[in-house]
Design a protein that fits this description.
Layout: E1 13-14, E2 17-18, H1 21-25, E3 31-33, E4 37-38, H2 41-44, E5 54-56, E6 62-66, E7 75-77, E8 82-83, H3 87-99, E9 105-106, E10 109-110, E11 115-117, E12 120-122, E13 127-128, E14 133-135, E15 138-140, E16 145-146, E17 151-153, E18 156-158, E19 163-164, E20 169-171, E21 174-175, E22 180-181, E23 186-188, E24 191-192, E25 197-198, E26 203-204, E27 215-218, E28 221-224, E29 233-234, E30 239-240, E31 245-246, E32 251-252, E33 263-264
Parallel strand pairs: 5-7, 9-12, 10-13, 11-14, 12-15, 13-16, 14-17, 15-18, 16-19, 17-20, 18-21, 19-22, 20-23, 21-24, 22-25, 24-29, 25-30, 26-31, 29-32, 31-33
Antiparallel strand pairs: 1-2, 3-6, 4-8, 5-6, 27-28
């Protein structure tokens, strides 16, 4: 997978915090965590010395437990906790975390002609330009330039030193640091790695015409993502030409690029 080839899951940012840091945010020093487990505080609250002492995912995998080893005789099955196995699991984790933010933290500059609905975290040195509309909870890192006339929504997180250009829409996505999305582009239900550059008019498709859940290739196996909305997974350093169109569920591996007007119908691998 493009994202996992560049960094370990434990280092991947969710809401601009490394995945492993979220275990500490749970505030349970008495709990051991599976390194790839996304654990919600609500699920974790069920664990106690009187039992249950182990939290299991929907497929029965131990996610968190008291003591040195999980006790599979004293368990609670999680509602909003799961193992991160595929990149789209990271989108789900980001949805849950960013969606749970209850307070604004605005350290950057928000223009008076920008509109913010929901809760936001905006880092130092970031400028939100006129005409920007932020709807729903959104996390934006430091030293970013957003706008003018952008629409950002749906539990999106954007890393540090990013540029989101004029009239760009970002929906329910994760953008890592030093990534640029050129003007007149759409990114939905997707992950963009570091130092990605989307040329003007690059559009991700995220919905099947028949409304069914998306499937995508993992190795030689076609896997059902379980997601009705799913865009693309883009590795570090990918560049797209202007007016690139990307089919749902496609993966652009690190260092690849597209030509102007290209339609990405299959996963894009680097040349041998």
């Amino acid at each position: 997978m493009p994202i996992f080839s560049e960094r370990a899951i434990e280092d991947f940012p969710i809401g601009n915090l490394p995945f492993s840091e979220h275990h500490k945010l749970c505030g349970r020093d008495d709990v051991q965590f599976h390194s790839q487990a996304w654990v919600s505080p609500e699920d974790l609250a069920h664990l106690s010395s009187d039992g249950p002492t182990s939290l299991l995912g929907a497929q029965g995998a131990p996610l968190a437990w008291l003591g040195n080893y999980p006790d599979l005789e004293a368990t609670h099955t999680a509602d909003n906790s799961f193992l991160v196995v595929h990149p789209w699991d990271l989108i789900r984790a980001n949805e849950l975390y960013v969606g749970s933010i209850e307070e604004d933290v605005i350290e950057g500059d928000v223009h008076s002609m920008a509109v913010i609905g929901g809760k936001v975290r905006i880092g130092k040195g970031t400028r939100i330009l006129p005409g920007v509309v932020i709807e729903g909870n959104v996390v934006i890192g430091a030293n970013c330039k957003i706008g003018p006339n952008c629409y950002i929504r749906g539990n999106t997180s954007i890393g540090d030193h990013c540029h989101i250009g004029n009239a760009v829409e970002i929906k329910n996505s994760i953008l890592l640091s030093h990534t640029n999305v050129g003007h007149l582009s759409y990114v939905g239900d997707s992950i963009l790695g570091e130092r990605v550059n989307f040329g003007a008019g690059t559009v991700t498709s995220n919905l099947r015409h028949d409304g069914k859940t998306h499937r995508t290739m993992v190795g030689d196996v076609l896997v059902n993502t379980g997601r009705r909305k799913f865009g693309c997974i883009v590795g570090d350093g990918v560049h797209t030409g202007i007016n690139t169109s990307i089919y749902p569920g496609r993966k652009l591996f690190p260092g690849t690029s597209t030509r102007p007007g290209e339609i990405v119908q299959r996963d894009l691998h680097p040349s041998p």
